[in-house]
From TrEMBL:
A GO MF label: polysialic-acid O-acetyltransferase activity
SUPFAM superfamilies registered for this protein in UniProt: Trimeric LpxA-like enzymes (SSF51161)
Enzyme class: transferase
Superkingdom, taxonomy of origin: Bacteria
EC number, as in UniProt: 2.3.1.136
Gene3D superfamilies referenced in this protein's UniProt entry, alphabetically: Hexapeptide repeat proteins
Protein name: Carbonic anhydrase family protein
Tagged with keyword Transcription: no
PANTHER family xref list: DYNACTIN SUBUNIT P25 (PTHR13061), GAMMA CARBONIC ANHYDRASE-LIKE 1, MITOCHONDRIAL-RELATED (PTHR13061:SF29)
Regions crossing the membrane: none
The entry's keywords: Acyltransferase, Transferase
Organism for this UniProt entry: Sulfurospirillum diekertiae
Length: 194
């Protein structure tokens, strides 16, 4: 399904393939020879999404942008099944494996690999040619790449990046689940107008 959001329609190169049950929504630009596979969701809720040439977005991957977090994917990137990529920059030839996540305001250098179930946390910057191992976490700028067992070290770096403020516009001490969902419901009410 290809749908406009707030009066902006996706721009899709005629050589691209969009599976019949994939969703491309809003301010999205898709380059030449891109392949968007079955169940993939490309959702521009405010900010733009740009996908370069010859990228492959596999089944059930979710790519999103927000007002203050556009998503830019350079040429020849591969996004694996069930991956979540939101409001970040992927340089050329980046591989984001199955169930991996690349989060808001992060930057992944060219020819890097984010392996199965790995996470690149908000505002984290990965140097070109880097690899985040299966299930590990990259956090910080420049990113430290750590196993999940190093939670205290991850949290020491992650906490000042302030996920609730960066993503929801709420200070950590006021970012209760109730406040977050109320704010999201109000913002997403514009979807009913599409």
């Amino acid at each position: 399904m290809i749908s406009s959001h707030q009066g902006v329609s996706p721009r899709i190169d005629p050589t691209a393939y969009i599976a019949p049950n994939a969703m491309v929504y809003g301010n999205v630009t898709i380059g030449a020879n891109v392949r968007i596979m079955f169940g993939a969701q490309i959702i521009a809720e405010g900010g733009s999404i740009t996908i370069g040439e010859e990228c492959v977005i596999m089944e059930n991957a979710v790519l999103r942008s927000l007002d203050n977090h556009p998503l830019t994917i350079a040429n020849n990137c591969l996004i694996g099944p069930h991956a979540h990529v939101v409001g970040c920059v992927l340089e050329e030839e980046v591989f984001v494996a199955t169930s991996a996540s690349v989060l808001h305001a992060s930057h992944v250098g060219a020819r890097s690999e984010i392996r199965i179930g790995a996470v690149v946390h908000i505002k984290s910057h990965i140097k070109p040619g880097s690899m985040v191992p299966i299930g590990w976490v990259a956090v910080g700028n420049p990113a430290e790449i750590l196993p999940t067992e190093e939670h205290e070290c991850i949290w020491r770096i992650q906490k000042p990046l302030n996920f609730p403020l960066s993503v929801y516009g709420l200070d950590r001490d006021e970012a209760t689940t109730k406040r977050v969902t109320q704010k999201l419901c109000a913002k997403l009410s514009s979807l009913k107008e599409d």
